[in-house]
Design a protein that fits this description.
heterodimer, A: 191 residues, Porin, 8-stranded antiparallel barrel, 47% strand, disordered N terminus, B: 268 residues, 5-stranded mixed sheet, 11 strands, 28% helix
């Protein structure tokens, strides 16, 4: 009798604990290819305002087989979903998402604050941290919802550019627009 | 499963063919094609294959920063002047030091009909620009000989190396200036002039002493200041030619003949 009581008690406390933890559990996990923030990037994030707004944090990696040096970076992204259509009970379409990101590349050469060996305002930008904007679209499905605790899986595409590229393109018709576009796509699994 | 296939198919059809080279992994990815690698060495070979005449005519530009359109117009103008033997860019080729800016800059210079050489500027070294320069052009310090004139390209961007006492490399310069059988006069090209605050003050004297030592330096050329001026800052009377940045839509032509030289300005 006593043993059962202890068991019940511990179960209750576990349940309320896991409920508390669930509040902080990310709403989704994303895996993205390209898009300027890594060759492959893994992200987690939260949705707000009935999923109209998303805040994601990505870690991105560029391996040596696509660049001279491997690169590590993180980025913080805000995405707003402007439209949302239910195609059928299983498929939702979000044709226009807009977003902003700030991207930080690791390494001493990618400084954020102008190093001390420069006079003030010697360079106006920082190679270590720069931001940009993007447009995208997303299709959400019920994939994985039967076999796993996930509620669904989304596929998305995005195209964006960043301040450093836009500044390079500004006033230069000789630079092709496609050269400043960062294209990427990914998959998101929702809780 | 059918949904996945359909969606994968949709993504492929809609976006893949149009955007093949638009998949960007990072602004610091260096993945240059063959024509964007080892550019200085290939141009040295191209220059050696060129027929020589009595006068060497060189078009100088530099400080192209974000002036890509102007760079293209410069290239078009130089291609119309068939007396030009080669082109020298005095640095600040990639404004943010981005690999992409290196590619853009070189996409225009590749259209030059004559060989071209780029000396490293301070902007070119920001971020992983130093790596991008080495991948695209080669060593920071290099030299070539054309028609008995030696051209020495020197990294003088001391500030970018925290004034570590090794930039510019005085020993290398002295070695290069040592008289040889294959040249009579020397032209020294660099980005930051020795009188500028971005040049290592502790090396200024050693620098101009090494240039005057063998009395074989005909003149020096630099950029960094964007305007044009010919001046003699030291008692050795070696002329320093500060050449126009591309933004002025002007460039300097220097003609070398019988150990004499003259400087012209061309508008474009």
């Amino acid at each position: 009798m006593l043993v059962t009581g202890v068991e019940t008690f511990s179960q209750v406390s576990q349940n309320s604990d896991s409920a508390r933890y669930q509040m902080f559990l990310p709403d989704y996990v994303k895996l993205q290819f390209a898009g300027g923030i890594g060759f492959l990037s893994l992200g987690v994030g939260y949705t707000f305002f009935k999923q109209k707004l998303e805040v994601s944090y990505f870690y991105g990696y560029v391996p040596e087989f696509v660049s001279t040096d491997d690169l590590h970076s993180v980025s913080l992204q805000l995405t707003a979903r402007l439209f949302r259509f239910k195609v059928n009970p299983n498929i939702e379409l979000m044709p226009l998402n807009i977003g902003w990101f700030i991207h930080h590349t690791f390494g001493s050469e990618y400084w954020i604050k102008l190093p001390e060996h420069y006079p003030e305002e010697y360079y106006w930008w920082s190679p270590g941290r720069n931001s940009g904007v993007f447009l995208g679209g997303e299709i959400r499905t019920k994939l994985l919802s039967n076999a796993t605790p996930a509620s669904g899986t989304a596929f998305y595409v995005r195209m964006g550019s960043r301040g450093l590229y836009l500044a390079s393109k500004f006033g230069n018709s000789s630079i092709p627009l496609k050269d400043i576009i960062e294209f990427g796509f990914g998959v998101a699994v929702y809780r | 499963m059918r949904i996945v296939i359909k969606i994968a198919f949709l993504i492929n059809i809609l976006f893949m063919p149009a955007c093949e080279d638009m998949f960007d992994y990072s602004p610091y990815t260096i993945d240059f094609s063959d024509e964007n690698r080892n550019v200085n060495q290939r141009n040295i070979e191209k220059l050696h294959a060129r027929e020589k005449n009595d006068t060497i005519t060189i078009a100088f530009t530099g400080d192209t920063h974000l002036f890509f359109d102007e760079t293209e117009w410069f290239v078009n103008n130089v291609n119309k002047n068939h007396s030009i033997d080669f082109v020298i860019h005095v640095g600040d080729f990639a404004d943010f030091g981005l690999p992409k800016q290196y590619l853009w800059g070189n996409s225009f210079l590749l259209k030059l009909e004559v060989p071209y050489f780029v000396v490293i500027g301070n902007h070119d070294l920001v971020g992983n620009g130093s790596k991008a320069y080495q991948e695209m052009f080669g060593s920071f310090n290099y030299s070539l000989i054309y028609d008995s004139i030696k051209f020495i390209f020197v990294n003088t961007n001391s500030r970018e190396f925290k004034f570590n006492g090794n930039v510019p490399d005085i020993l290398w310069i002295e070695n290069q200036l040592q008289p040889g059988v294959d040249f009579t006069r020397v032209v020294v090209i660099f980005h930051v002039p020795p009188t500028n605050s971005d040049f290592d003050e502790s090396l200024e004297e050693a620098f101009h002493n090494s240039l005057s030592h063998y009395k074989n330096v005909l003149f020096t050329v630099h950029g960094h200041l964007h305007n044009h001026e010919i001046y003699k800052p030291y008692a050795d009377s070696i002329p320093y030619v500060n050449v126009f940045g591309v933004a002025h839509r002007k460039y300097n032509l220097i003609k070398i003949s019988k150990n004499q030289f003259e400087v012209e300005t061309v508008e474009f």
